[in-house]
């Protein structure tokens, strides 16, 4: 299996993934305790599905009982040359959502990789996962040697940064695992904690999702508390602030080679007043095939109204 493991990693890179590693299918370690604490303290907010699937998340084999190993991959999505021009009159969308929906891109590549493995080992059975099943991808990525979980709770790949999508394969094959990533290179830096407008990073690697701009503009159901509305600024889907200030990203983040992630919303396309005039049909057409479309028209309208309110406050001040 050693040769197959190395060949699999080589093939993953050929398919366009930027990093790949292999680990076992058991996560019953400190990651489970961290998740339970996160839920016990209600930091998951209205994401009830996190609590409902906590047990499965700590044990990938609960989802795929035959699993003996996990192939973890990372795909760069950063578009350095296509940074959006900041203006309070323009809505801001997180970098990861400016191109085609990453679920489809990673899933296609992973299915290709799984088929390639099965051609070489006919007994292969496996499952693809990309944010689609209750599996803790970041701890698995650490176990597979890809990087470390930073103080802003993202996974950082040394010398490359954190602008990466994660996904993987659960396999019934006993592939030899890579050495886990055991170091942590954030050092004394706390820029991400200080930069978060809503103080959602309560301590290193401790996120209170209830305050997080990404959570509030994407996952949250219901009204957004007035105390947090002004914190959203002109963000209408997601947030990149804690990644933008990270020295690892500022120094090492490079342009993604995946053309599907090309920015579709540059310039005046995200003018807040223009966006408020979009009908449901126009919204669905404009954001078709992107992660933004997943949030739904009603939530999109909600964040737009908050962003416009913040624009008015800015004008008065």
Keywords:
2 domains, four-stranded antiparallel beta sheet, two-stranded parallel sheet, globular
Task: Note down, in words, how this protein is organized.
The chain is α+β, with helices and mostly antiparallel strands and 317 residues long. It folds into 2 domains: 2-78 and 101-171, no CATH class; 191-316, no CATH class. Helix content is 38%, strand content 13%. It contains 15 helices and 10 strands. The strands form 4 sheets. The protein has a 4-stranded antiparallel sheet with strand order 1-2-7-4, sandwiched between helices. The protein has a two-stranded parallel ribbon with strand order 3-10. It has a two-stranded antiparallel ribbon with strand order 5-6. A hairpin with a 5-residue loop joins strand 5 and strand 6 (155-156). The longest helix is centred in the C-terminal third of the chain and has 20 residues, at 297-316. The chain is globular, with a radius of gyration of 20 Å. The model has no long low-confidence stretch (mean pLDDT 88).
A few lines on this structure:
The chain is an alpha+beta fold. It has 15 helices and ten strands.
Outline the fold blueprint:
Elements lengths: L1 H13 L4 E6 L5 H11 L7 H5 L1 H4 L11 E8 L15 E2 L8 H19 L5 E4 L7 H7 L4 E2 L5 E2 L7 E8 L19 H5 L5 E3 L2 E2 L5 H7 L6 H4 L5 E3 L3 H4 L2 H6 L19 H5 L3 H7 L5 H4 L1 H20 L1
Parallel strand pairs: 3-10
Antiparallel strand pairs: 1-2, 2-7, 4-7, 5-6, 8-9
Helix pairs in contact: 1-5
